[in-house]
Amino acid sequence: MIIDAGMTIAYKCSSCGTFEFVNITLFEISSRRETVFNCRCNSSKLVITKENAHCYKLAIPCIGCGTRHDYVLERKDFVKQDIRIFNCPKTGIQQCFAGNDKEVRKRIDLLEKEFDELINLFGYDSYFSNTQVIYDSLNIIHDIAAKGNLFCGCGNEDIELLLFSDKIYLRCGKCPATKIIYASTNEHFRENLKLNQILLLDEGHELKNVPNE
Ligand SMILES: [Zn+2]
Ligand SMILES: [Zn+2]
Ligand SMILES: [Zn+2]
Q1: For residue 165, what are the CA distances in angstroms to 86, 181, 188, 205?
Q2: Contacts of 155 (CB under 8 A, 6+ apart)
Q3: What is the reported pTM?
Q4: What is the 150 CA–ligand 3 centroid distance (Å)?
Q5: Which ligand is nearest to the CA of 63?
Q6: Do the strands 178-182 and 167-172 form a parallel or antiparallel pair, or are they unpaired?
Q7: DSSP for 29-59?
Q8: I need a surface site. Which of 30, 101, 177, 211 has the fewest CB within 10 A?
Q9: With pLDDT > 90 as the criterion, what percentage of the chain qualifies?
Q10: So where are the chain's domains?
Q11: Ligand 1 mean position to 18 CA, how many Å?
């Protein structure tokens, strides 16, 4: 019996930051040594290389750490119903999902639900210099806050968050302390990924003095 099993791969583009979907079949990738898929922005690509009859290598440039990662996909992954999630080994970001089409799309929908809400609120191209970077950076701040690592020097943990086109402005609710998180480039995103805690300090900035970068 010949099974031509298919699979969907969603990978986070290292340039535009969105998830790009690719449909592959075992037949397709086994008949070539190398299969290349470009992101719709044309600035990054996923390369699938046939290592041997049972093993395929996925090479993906990583938005999280700026390098490239190789992940191994096995023949048996094509027939399994669950999905494989590949994380960047340096930053832990979820970089790639592979498996059953419905399951992969469900996972991405879940990830992007709040992103869509942000877009509905501000529009994709109209407000932010880079909507994806703002969104991903917001998620980083939320994770830090959820771990109790977002606080002010005065001891207050009730922090206000304001969105600007190119930055996230954090402001203490009880004292004049502030913190600016820049979020307009992939560089900023990589810097923000390195944050483990955010401490607001009173450095005498008023909101009107926020520098324009
Ligand atoms: Zn892209
Ligand atoms: Zn990485
Ligand atoms: Zn404070």
Answers
A1: 31, 12, 14, 19
A2: none
A3: 0.80
A4: 11
A5: 2
A6: antiparallel
A7: HHSSSEEEEE-TTSS-EEEEEEEETTEEEEE
A8: 211
A9: 67
A10: 6-119, 123-209
A11: 6
Taking alpha carbons only, the member of 197, 146, 200, 125 closest to residue 170 is 200
Over 90: is that where the pLDDT of 33 sits? Answer: yes
Q: Residue 19: nearest ligand to its CA?
A: 1
Ligand lying nearest the CA atom of residue 87? 2
**Which ligand is in closest contact with the Cα of 150?**
3
Phi-psi region of 92 (alpha: psi -120 to 50; beta: other; left: phi over 0): left
- How many angstroms separate the alpha carbon of residue 154 from the centre of ligand 2? 35
CA of 148 to the centre of ligand 1 (A): 33
**175 CA to middle of ligand 3, Å?**
4
Among 65-69, 73-77, 115-119, name the one with the lowest average pLDDT: 115-119
Candidates 172, 183, 211; CA nearest to 127 is 183
93-114 pLDDT, tens digit each: 999 999 999 999 999 998 888 7
CA of 139 from ligand 3 middle (Å) equals 22
Rounded CA separation 61/134 (Å): 20
